[in-house]
Amino acid sequence: MDKRKRPDPKSLGGDINEQHEKKVLDMIRKNQGMGATTSELKSDKTIPPTLITRLVNSLKKKDLIREVPNMNNKGYKHFIAMEFQTSKELTGGDWYTDGSLDLSKIEDLKTKCVMILERQRHRHRVVTLDVICGYFDKQENLSVDQTKEILKNLILDNEIMEVKSNGLNEFAATRIGELCYKLAGKNSGNGEARAGTSFASMPCGACPSIGLCSPDGVISPGTCVYFQKWLDF
């Protein structure tokens, strides 16, 4: 009679589950910040589909993975390995926190942006994109794209306006043709809303040749038909 000890079925089952658990974790880690959905994990034919939920729960209890809802498709949940940041494709973008749009943060940044422009208005200056980006990068740790989104939001709210420098007066410290921002509408004060609106409608603001324009040049306000039409209007 063969007296060799046979493996304990329970012990063998544990070993198999550990192998499956490791494989599930590897599949989740493979996609980094996108992780994997339950259906993607079940697509692996080497793991019994009925084990997936149990394996995922075990990994969550061990704090190896977390469950994240897909903000663009709320019917799906993704499992992300703890060492990876959740992809923006799942969170909805930079302005979402814990799956919700962080409106208070957005409004706070918009207020700070208006304050920057307000200080420069009292100095009779406009503000360039580089200045605003520099401030938010240092103080708020925002990217250039995030800063542009805040500015775009303020423009749509008619809080500020986007203009191009003509090198004169409030634009004296900026290069001709450089993109700048200033207060608009109710924020401009002292009748600046009308002046700002008028300036924004000037053809100079959108002219691609403004950098070559000068009083004595081939391109000048005196020879520009578009500028003359604006004055006549």
UniProtKB/TrEMBL annotation:
It is found in: Nucleus. Its main location: nucleus. Residues 1-21 are annotated as: Disordered. This is DNA-directed RNA polymerase III subunit RPC6. It comes from Cardamine amara subsp. amara. Gene3D superfamilies: Winged helix-like DNA-binding domain superfamily/Winged helix DNA-binding domain (1.10.10.10). Pfam families: RNA_pol_Rpc34 (PF05158). The keyword Calcium does not apply. Keywords: DNA-directed RNA polymerase, Nucleus, Transcription. Belongs to the eukaryotic RPC34/RPC39 RNA polymerase subunit family. Coiled coil: none annotated. The keyword Zinc-finger does not apply. GO terms for cellular component: DNA-directed RNA polymerase complex; nucleus.
